[in-house]
User: Fold this.
Amino acid sequence: MTAMPDRVSIIVPALNEADGIVATLAMLQPLRILGHEVILADGGSSDDTVVLARGLTDAITFSARGRSQQMNVGAGQAAGDIFLFLHADTRLPERALHHMLDGLKATGQVWGRFDVRLSGRHPLLRVVERMMNWRSRLTGIATGDQAMFICRDAFLAVGGYPAIALMEDIALSRTLNRQFGAPLCLEATVMSSSRRWDQNGILRTMLLMWCLRLAYFFGVSPERLARQYEVPGR
Assistant:
């Protein structure tokens, strides 16, 4: 096998993900064989996340807890031409990097995301995921669950993720939209864990997320919002 012409750095922010980190990283090993790299960006795990990740990654970075900071530190160690930010509870589709690289080259866009499907079977989750994908296409805003990817130069040009406690993906999307235009919205689908909906109730979680987004839109600080929304792995 030969390496693809563009090297991708897959950056996985993690915090106490020992139960699932091996499964996540194991699925990325064929991409490492092709010459891409996998970086675990740990936020101070107190379980065996880091121990389990050794040997399945090209680098492990350490920072204070917070996805924006973890992903920025991981990106600072990345050697790839494109950064793919993959949550520890999210699985890429088959030929994910082919879809991504081909799409970026064909359109000239510099950033994008995948469609998302949630892992649970409840019918309401099908509504949630369709709304997430539809809203993203309509607004040009991507979420971390959709596995955002960004060309290195564009990521560096906007200064990476903003140093905020919540809504960092929305804030970065807005900045990228202003400077580089709309995202590439791939129909290829990542599978993201539905654990926060399962744990807190689907309708309750939907309402909370809508309220948080609305509050952020009207200027409530991400730090204040973060106190109302505890995200697994954040």
In short: The domain at 8-226 is CATH 3.90.550.10 (Spore Coat Polysaccharide Biosynthesis Protein SpsA; Chain A). Residues 123-139 form the longest helix (17 residues). The first strand starts at residue 8 and ends at 14. DSSP finds eleven helices and eight strands in the chain.
